[in-house]
Design goal:
3 domains; homodimer; 16 strands; Dihydrodipicolinate Reductase, domain 2; Rossmann fold; 10-stranded mixed sheet; about 25% strand
Chain lengths: ~425, ~425
């Protein structure tokens, strides 16, 4: 295995340029570790003339990613273009059809077409890997697929969108409104061209669906992820959750239940003192829980040139070393189809409401909760100057359905001044 | 690759029994993930009659580990006996000599003979893996060898002995003396038969030397680890470090410097609010820093049946899947010999001393520090009722040699009542 491993790299944005730089600058180190040189045969991007801070003259240029993927001098097609369909998908399929290996950072592509692409790779005897698609530089796909493969996985959860965590952290630390923190993150270039991918939880939901597939041996089921973004999180909730000892995080959780696969990406409360609660700014954290190993926590940069390129290199070096793994940790043909759990596992909930200031108001709320079978763990009513009193309730374990029922029962009483905010408290 | 992977397991203590249990109970899951059955051909331990909570009647019994390692029906020799020499070494060598693969949890064996065994494995075309030897269930060997292989590693550090961390945590949280916390840990069975392996930092030093070899492509050099145990850490230091915003941890640090390889395992101060500072009890944490990825933090159980068996299974499943890796991440023959850095990288230090209560005492201390080129960051003198005043000093970055020089210069002044305590403050 001393023949060079020859790459064709499609997409020369931040990550693509980062991968080219490492391969140019660290060729001796990489060859020492893998036993063979890793070289670049050809590259491809939308604009040939843009200066990417790295010389590209040594490599053949292709305008078309499919043509790049099909080149005879390309052993591994490195897909760093992005997009769930279009050229990224066409070129990945073309590479696999020719029996080439593929390394991608494209979570959207795999969330939508992961099972089909894994099946195609398997039929062709090709390897399709995607460490860079989830949690940036954290080698979490490897940990889950390989290092913890002896475990029955019980739950995987994490903060996997640094931009959302940055916005929530800035709201908390600087007292910004959601709109102000959003504008700041946008100005710093932290948000996707379509920011709904970030703040709507879609990007993080893509990642969660990939982790769930490996963890539970199921087909990728992004459409079954229960998605809720951070757009409705208010500074009031952040402050009042803090007052109760919690932080609000856009948290992804997946677990296999007797009712089917549960996949949720939504703003949740976690204890301030937990590792997740202490995760500030753009950092990512993934927690994997297995029946043997207990809880493993991994933390690191979730985006950026260096961290993402590091993850791409990890996959490429595996291939250079001759490691051949199934895309989702077991033969794609053996991945089970998903039954989505319609009801999330019971949990405590945080409820914030504004009560009109008249005798018996709190009693009506408490009655509605009690009749829905919900018991109260902690309750606080705050001092107020206008006609509505802020009330916070932390419930014991219950379901979202029971809460919705209670809230519906409160409406006719006329004591609730605005739509209550309901957030799940995830045990971490 | 549908032939079973046949194991011979030597050592049926907690970990060995745990591995047997998983292989018996999870055979379908393991085969689904690896594509082939993993079976046990034979086992070996000191006492055949002991009840280990798992049926062993299906497996051939060997009294001698070397005989087990040589059996024709054993593909992988699983060494869970422990000990840096004796039967563990003899049987590992016998297995490698016959071209068999070896998975071990034995940090002492590899710390002392790792380079030689890796060379032997390489010559035989065998795989020798040891995920379970470092940080229990945390898949840190895999992360460093594979996931982060595209990085030039700049520093690896961590808390890798749960027993020491338990003792330090109990001293802090329950106000126990070192002797009391030690006795408690011993009573709970947390300490090795020779407790100096734990509290002397030797066990953690073994682990650090293995991480350093992978990180820097060097031969394993345990004898070059600068070792200091926790036996001298007093409750006063824990309290006064806390007063300055720090916690005391038995911290391993390795980095490559212009002066050679630095490997230290010693009690250090880390900020209370850092991930390491928040690591309580028996949990382990390893931080890997790379030029591309930045800092990756991994946390999990560092010992115990399930976590350690999980790590052994990770290695076995790699082998079942056909993954063939060099023991220390590159050909053993290419590992560089180590020049040990004689002087640690400069850092701030914590100094606790007792000053005799007479005019000019502090001036003499300050003068001695100044003349050794050491500048003071923070200083506190505490109220006192006896004749000696407790004084805490946090220096700016300096070297241990400069501090030793300053302390030597203080002696003749007669103002220092007892040997000062000096602890390094590690930037995390």
């Amino acid at each position: 295995m001393t023949d060079p491993l020859r790459l064709g790299i499609a997409g020369l944005g931040t990550v693509g340029a980062g991968v080219v730089k490492i391969i140019r600058q660290k060729s001796v180190l990489l060859a020492e570790r893998t036993g063979r040189p890793i070289t670049i045969s050809a590259v491809c991007a939308r604009n040939r003339d843009r200066d990417r801070g790295v010389p590209l003259g040594d490599y053949a240029w292709e305008d078309d990613a499919v043509a790049l993927a099909k080149r005879d001098d390309v052993d591994v097609f490195v897909e760093l273009m992005g997009g769930s369909d279009g050229p990224a998908k066409a070129a990945t399929e073309a590479a696999l059809a020719m029996g080439k290996d593929v390394v991608t950072a494209n979570k959207a592509l795999l969330a939508h077409h992961g099972t089909a692409l894994a099946l195609q790779a398997e039929a062709a005897g090709s390897v399709l890997r995607f460490e860079a698609a989830v949690a940036g530089g954290i080698p979490v796909i490897k940990a889950l697929t390989e290092g913890l493969a002896g475990n029955e996985i019980t739950r995987v959860m994490g903060v996997m969108n640094g931009s959302c965590n940055y916005i929530l952290t800035r709201m908390e630390n600087a007292g910004l409104t959601y709109q102000e923190a959003f504008a700041e993150a946008d100005g710093l270039g932290y948000l996707e061209a379509d920011p709904e991918l970030d703040v709507g939880g879609i990007d993080a939901g893509h990642k969660l669906s990939l982790l769930a597939s490996i963890a539970f041996g199921t087909q990728v089921a992004f459409s079954a992820v229960e998605l809720e973004g951070i757009g409705k999180v208010s500074i009031d909730d952040i402050r009042q959750a803090a007052d109760m000892g919690y932080k609000i995080k856009l948290l992804g959780v997946c677990r296999m239940t007797g009712r089917g696969l549960e996949q949720r990406m939504s703003p949740c409360l976690v204890p301030q003192t937990s590792p997740l609660g202490q995760l500030d700014g753009g950092t990512n954290m993934v927690m994997i829980e297995g029946d043997q190993v207990g809880q493993i926590v991994m933390r690191g940069a979730g985006a950026g040139e260096g961290p993402t390129a590091s993850a791409v290199l990890g996959d490429l070096m595996d291939i250079a070393r001759g490691t051949r793994l199934s895309t989702f940790g077991q033969p794609a043909s053996s991945l089970k189809s998903v039954t989505a759990a319609r009801v999330a596992t019971p949990a405590p909930y945080y409820v914030r409401m504004a009560l009109v200031d008249k005798p018996g108001a709190l009693a009506k709320v408490a009655t509605a909760l009690g009749e829905a079978g919900i018991s109260i763990n902690r309750m606080r009513q705050y001092d107020h100057t206008n006609e509505a009193a802020p009330v916070l309730i932390v419930t014991h374990k219950t379901t979202r359905a029971a809460l919705d029922q209670a809230i519906e029962a409160m409406a006719p009483t006329g004591v609730v001044a605005a739509d209550p905010v309901v957030l799940r408290i995830e045990a971490v």
